[in-house]
Structure formats: structure tokens, C-alpha cells
């Protein structure tokens, strides 16, 4: 091979360009969104998208039942260990059922790991409120990530949608898309920070009553707030990416 066939960095001229960090990150986010049923490139009813993002009835049960079991048992017994065992046991059952049925176990396994880590921490410290520490950290981390991404002009929503729509980061050159993605990222950051603002004082209170209230509010501020924001996000993205089928279905002159 002649020297003219090589680039100054030693790579062959025919080598494919290496993906940038934003492209890799966007691909990861977009893949997660697609697996959750949120692909703006496809035609879908908003209700269907929200339902798919929540995982249907199974996803709702997997998300709610472990936490609900802990809150109910701890409220009635004030006994930490059995409450945690039942909560984690429910998550284990959901994961086993998915394995037996050979269905995707990502969400269930993630829930099981989160429940196991939270339970281990609470058992180690002997404080029931520590069962909610991973959730508080998650809200703080996600809220910060969405906020920072919006402020620096690289909205996480935009990165995910750009991958799904096969336009990479070209959306940053479109002021309308950039503005929509900015406010969507702010909305998601607000959701996580509101959860944190409401739940952190209850965690710091450290009483059994506050812990019960913390567990209850975690459930109330979970899917009931997640679902509407998913719908808003979907509608906003569809507004800046009109479905091509609508143009194809238009009557010909």
C-alpha cells in the first residue's frame, strides 16, 4: 500500500470515521428509548407509547408492587427485615417469571438489583429510611444530567431523538428543535428535582412515620408523574418531526 493511501494518523483512507462521544451517547439513549417503545420515526398513538414506556400491566406491577409491599408491611409491623425480604422477594419472582417465559428481563432485573442494593443498605445501617437512598441518588443524578445537558446546549432528549431520526446532532442547527429539546430536558430535570425536594426532607426526618410517608410519596410521584411527561415528550417530538406518512397520504393535485 502506498503512502498516499494512508492518513496522517496512520489509518487507511478507507477506514470509517470513528463515532464521536455525542454519537455514542445518543445511540445509547436512543436505543433505550426504542426499547421502551418511544421511536418518533414510527406512527403510534400517544396512549400506546405511554403504555409501552411503562411496560404495560406487567411493567406497572413490577414497578409498584415491591415498594407497595414494603410500605404496607413496615407501616403495619414496624419490622424492617420482613418488610425488606417480602419487597425483594416480589422483585425476584417477577424476574424468575420473565426468565421462565423467555421475555426481556432488563427492566425486571434492573428493579431487582435496585431493590437488593436498597435492602442491603437498610439492613446494614438498621434504618428503614435508607431503603430509599438509591432512589434519592438516582433523582439527583438524573435531574442534574438533564439540567446540565439543557444548559450546555446538548439536551439528552435531543441526542436520543437525533439518533432515532437518523440525523445525529443536526438538530442543533435547527432553532425550533433546539428550543423544544431544551425545554423537554428542563421538564425532566424539574420532575427529578421535585421528587428530591419532596422526599429528601422526609428521609432526613428519620422517623418511622416519615419513612412511611416517604415510601407512599415515592409511589405517588413515580408512574403518575412519569406517564404524563412521557406523553408531553412524545407529542412535542412528533410536532417537530411531522410523520412522513401524513405527507404521503395527502391528496394529489
Automatic annotation (TrEMBL):
It comes from Microbacterium flavum. The chain crosses the membrane at residues 80-100, 107-125, 145-168, 180-204, 216-237. Signal peptide: none annotated. Residues 1-21 are annotated as: Disordered. This is DUF3159 domain-containing protein. Pfam families: DUF3159. Residues 1-14 have a biased composition (Basic and acidic residues). Keywords: Membrane, Transmembrane, Transmembrane helix.
